[in-house]
Design goal:
8 strands, alpha/beta, binds zinc ion
Length: 277
C-alpha cells in the first residue's frame, strides 16, 4: 500500500512534446508506455501546421495520456499561407478544430528570429491571431520565443493592453531575469525544458531565472524529440517525454526543494492551466 502511494505521488506532466515528429514514427505507443513507467502520466503534443495539429488530435484520441495543442509554428507559416487565404479562414479552421475535447491549448505559436523561415511581420501578425484564437476558444496559448524577445513582448503587450491577459506559457524558456520579469507581468507561466541543464556558459543567465519563478507559474517540458537534458545530451538519439523527470530534478535542486515538491507543484499548475484531469 505504501509503495502504491509513493508511485501515485510520483507524477509529472510533459507540457510540450512533438509526438507527431518523424523521430517517433510508429513508436508512440512505446514512448507513451515508457513515459508512464517513469511517472510521466500526461503529455501535451504540439501542433505546428494544419496537418500536424490534426495528427496531434488523432494521437490524443488514441492515447488517454496525450492531449493536443493546435497552432501554426512561426517557422511553418510560409508553407501554410496558401491554404489559409485570409485571417478569418485561419481562425475558422482552428476554432473548428478546437471543438475536439482532446484539444487543450493553442500551440505552438510565437516568434523565431534564429531561423529565417518567415518574415518577422508575418510571425507577429499570426502571434496576435493566435491570441485572438485563444480568446475565441478559451484555451491557453503555448508560446515559442527564439532570439525574438523584443518582438514577442511588443505583440504580447499590445494584446494585453487591449484585451487583458491571455492565459499561457512561454515554452522552453531561455531568457534572462529581465525577460522573465516581463513575461510574469503579462501573466504568463514559465516552462523549462532540457536546455536549462546544458553546461554551456551561455545558459548561466537562464539558470539564474529558475529560483525567481513564482511557485504557481512553474511548468516543465521536454520539447522532445529535441533538447535532450544532461547528462544524456548527445548520448541518445532522440529526447522523449519520460526525460522530463531529469529536468524536473535539476530544477528542484536549483530551487532547493524536493523532487516530490516540484512534481506536485508543476503537475497542479499544468492541470489548472490546461484543464487536465
Ligand atoms: Zn516545440
Amino acid at each position: 500500500m505504501r509503495n502504491l502511494n509513493l508511485m501515485e505521488k510520483k507524477m509529472l506532466i510533459d507540457t510540450h512534446c512533438h509526438l507527431d515528429d518523424e523521430a517517433f514514427a510508429n513508436d508512440v505507443a512505446n514512448i507513451v508506455a515508457a513515459a508512464r513507467n517513469a511517472g510521466v502520466e500526461r503529455m501535451i503534443t504540439q501542433g505546428t501546421s494544419i496537418s500536424s495539429s490534426l495528427d496531434c488530435i488523432a494521437l490524443a484520441e488514441e492515447f488517454p495520456e496525450v492531449y493536443a495543442a493546435i497552432a501554426i509554428h512561426p517557422n511553418c507559416l510560409m508553407e501554410e499561407l496558401p491554404a489559409l487565404g485570409s485571417d478569418d479562414v485561419f481562425l475558422d479552421i482552428f476554432t473548428k478544430m478546437a471543438e475536439n475535447p482532446r484539444v487543450r491549448a493553442i500551440g505552438e505559436t510565437g516568434v523565431d528570429l534564429y531561423w529565417h523561415d518567415t518574415p518577422v511581420n508575418i510571425q507577429k501578425k499570426f502571434l496576435a491571431l493566435h491570441f485572438e484564437l485563444s480568446r475565441r476558444t478559451q484555451l491557453p496559448v503555448i508560446i515559442h520565443c527564439r532570439d525574438a524577445e523584443e518582438d514577442l513582448l511588443k505583440v504580447a503587450r499590445n494584446d494585453f493592453d487591449k484585451n487583458g491577459p491571455v492565459p499561457g506559457v512561454i515554452h522552453s524558456f531561455s531568457g534572462n531575469t529581465d525577460f522573465l520579469k516581463a513575461c510574469l507581468e503579462l501573466d504568463f507561466h514559465i516552462s523549462y525544458s532540457g536546455s536549462v541543464t546544458f553546461k554551456n556558459k551561455c545558459f548561466d543567465s537562464l539558470r539564474e531565472t529558475v529560483p525567481l519563478v513564482p511557485e504557481n507559474r512553474l511548468l516543465v517540458e521536454t520539447d522532445s524529440p529535441y533538447l535532450t537534458p544532461m547528462p544524456f545530451r548527445g548520448k541518445i538519439k532522440r529526447n522523449t517525454p519520460e526525460m522530463v523527470t531529469h529536468t524536473a530534478r535539476f530544477i528542484a535542486e536549483i530551487r532547493g526543494i524536493s523532487e516530490e515538491n516540484i512534481q506536485e507543484t508543476t503537475t497542479q499548475n499544468t492541470k489548472k492551466l490546461f484543464q487536465i484531469d
